[in-house]
Amino acid sequence: MSVPETKIPETPEPESSSFVSNLISEIVYSPVNLLLTVIIVVLVYKILKSKFSKVSVEAPPPPLPKIRKDMTVAELKQYDGTQPDGRVLVAVNGWIFDVTRGRRFYGPGGPYAAFGGKDASRGLATFSVTSSDKEYDDLSDLNSMEMDSVKEWEAQFREKYDLVGRLLKPGEEPTNYSDEEQEETENADHSHDKKEK
Ligand code: HEM
Q1: 112 C-alpha to center of ligand 1: Å?
Q2: What percent of the chain has pLDDT over 90?
Q3: pLDDT per position as a tens digit, 49-84
Q4: For a pocket test of ligand 1, which of 97, 112, 118, 161 has the largest count of ligand atoms closer than 8 A to its C-beta?
Q5: Is any ligand 1 atom within 6 A of the Cβ of residue 163?
Q6: Same domain for 85 and 164
Q7: Average pLDDT, whole number, for the chain?
Q8: What gap in Å lies between CA 164 and CA 166, rounded to an integer?
Q9: Do 102 and 145 lie in a common domain?
Q10: Where does this protein have compositionally biased stretches of type Basic and acidic residues (predicted)?
Q11: C-alpha 32 to ligand 1 mean position (Å)
Q12: Of the candidates 37, 31, 136, which has an alpha carbon nearest to the alpha carbon of residue 93?
């Protein structure tokens, strides 16, 4: 009696390796797939390169020296960001703020450029990005809700930006802030002295 031949089944390749080899042969033997693969590899390389090589983006310009000064509406007008130093000032509720940090809002081409170098109070209160060329706007016709809104904006500006001074009414005299500056420097000197002792 002959023993029936037992066929040993061929061990199938693991699924993953057959998938990979199929993929590779698909890519290598089809020029379209090869081209697409090259394009994908080049694009991925470019994306990764741009992500990791941009270590130093343009350094921000050094902050401008602080100014402390009361101004008339006419004086304020020049600080709309078009000067070479790019300084932008905005007045809110009778106070002038240095909003140069927010140049992208108030500088030339910004969404709120109409407020740059201007008294923005009325525009902010009435939710309209416009400013008038009036000599001085006393805001006396605004209702109490609008005035509350002006005050809220003023508080927000105080928190975010440096105070420059007061917006002068016609005939009003500017405050002399040089005493204040001197005091500040003296205080700074004293603290320095204390530290050294
Ligand atoms: C569709 C209407 C508006 C949209 C979508 C809008 C959007 C914005 C956004 C997203 C910011 C914050 C930007 C940031 O901090 O990065 C902002 C800030 C501001 N918006 Fe508007 N805004 C609109 C209308 C107005 C109007 C009508 C006014 C003026 C009356 C105004 C005045 C301001 C001011 C003063 C700031 C503060 C900028 C700063 O931080 O100094 N916005 N707005």
Answers
A1: 8
A2: 55
A3: 877 765 555 677 788 999 999 999 999 999 999 999
A4: 112
A5: no
A6: yes
A7: 84
A8: 7
A9: yes
A10: 187-197
A11: 50
A12: 136
The gap from C-alpha 182 to its chain's centroid, in whole angstroms, comes to 33
Q: How many domains does the chain have?
A: 2
Q: What is the pLDDT of residue 122?
A: 97
Alpha carbon nearest to ligand 1 atom 7, residue: 111
Give pLDDT tens digits for 144-176. Answer: 999 999 999 999 999 999 999 999 999 999 999
Reported as type and span, the H/E element at residue 123 is: helix 121-125
Query: Does ligand 1 have an atom closer than 6 angstroms to the CB of 112?
Result: yes
Structure tokens at 87: 């300084």
Q: Average pLDDT in the 98-108 region?
A: 97
Average pLDDT over residues 29-37: 81
For residues 81 and 39, state if they share a domain: no
Supply the range of the domain harboring residue 135: 73-196
Ligand 1, residue 127: give the atom nearest the CA: 30
Spatial CA neighbour of 76 closest among 164, 178, 187, 11: 164
- Name the band, by pLDDT with cuts 50, 70 and 90, for residue 7: low
Residues whose CB is less than 8 angstroms from the CB of residue 34 and which lie 6 or more positions away in sequence, other chains included: 27, 28
pTM of the model: 0.70
Ligand 1 neighbour 105 (Cβ under 6 A)? yes
> Which residue type, as a one-letter code, is found at position 34?
L
Q: What is the pLDDT of residue 19?
A: 74
